[in-house]
Design goal:
single chain, alpha/beta, Alpha-Beta Plaits, 2 domains, four-stranded mixed sheet, 5 helices, 8 strands, about 35% helix, about 20% strand, disordered C terminus
């Protein structure tokens, strides 16, 4: 993972709270476009500057070539309001020499995944088992990847709950209806990715006690639960 710093100098005549909201909207657009890794970001106000530290899968994840129309629009709005350019720089990496992103020329298959407490992409290469940045894919809707990201977040929340449940007998078990709904949504997302890319996409996730019974579910042709 790469640690990036984004800073913007705010003009004295602008209301800081308003500019913080505008800045947060840019971070949201970066996330919806798959350019920013999961796990949140750290935002600071230093004098008349707003600074944000965040994680990305690649050194150039925030390059303009990866932006969508919403990211570009919000960057322009911020720069027009402040009369200053947004400053983006790479501070370093948290794991030098460790390969985290797929470089396969054409993967034979994808895997949709959501691992709790992970900053990895929701999409994994089935050949090298490394993350695939979402911005490499055709957009799924509204120039973003919301359906993929929403499924990933929901799955991570439920898996986190399951982990808590294992350590505390007083925490009630989740209904199988929730687990089944998340799995079914995952199969739908896999189908959408496969339709957009032409690459077979499977669901890869360890979630819920009933997953063994639903693995290789034939009601979802071409999709399987993998453990």
């Amino acid at each position: 993972m790469y640690v990036q710093e984004i800073t913007l100098e705010i003009s004295p005549d602008l209301e800081m709270e308003l500019m913080i909201d505008e800045f947060n909207w840019l971070m949201s657009n970066y996330h919806k476009n798959g350019q920013v890794a999961n796990g949140g970001h750290t935002q600071l106000v230093i004098g008349n500057r707003i600074a944000c530290l965040l994680y990305t899968l690649e050194r150039d994840s925030l390059d303009s070539k990866n932006n969508n129309i919403h990211v570009n629009k919000q960057i322009k709005r911020l720069e027009d309001l402040c009369g200053k350019k947004l400053d983006i720089r790479t501070l370093g990496t948290n794991n030098p020499g460790h390969k985290e992103v797929c470089s396969c020329e054409k993967p034979s298959n994808y895997m949709l995944t959501a691992l709790c407490f992970s900053r990895d992409s929701a999409l994994m290469c089935g050949d090298c088992r490394l993350s695939i940045p979402l911005y490499r894919l055709p957009k799924t809707e509204d120039e973003s990847y919301l359906s993929i990201l929403n499924w990933q977040l929901s799955s991570m929340v439920i898996e986190g709950y399951e982990i808590i449940n294992l350590k505390n007998e007083k925490v009630p078990e989740l209904s199988n209806n929730y687990l089944t709904a998340i799995d079914d949504l995952g199969f739908d997302v896999c189908a959408k990715i496969e339709l957009l890319t032409g690459i077979p996409t499977r669901l890869f996730q360890k979630l819920g006690k009933e997953k063994e019974n639903r693995r290789n579910n034939k009601s979802h042709p071409g999709k399987e639960m993998t453990t």
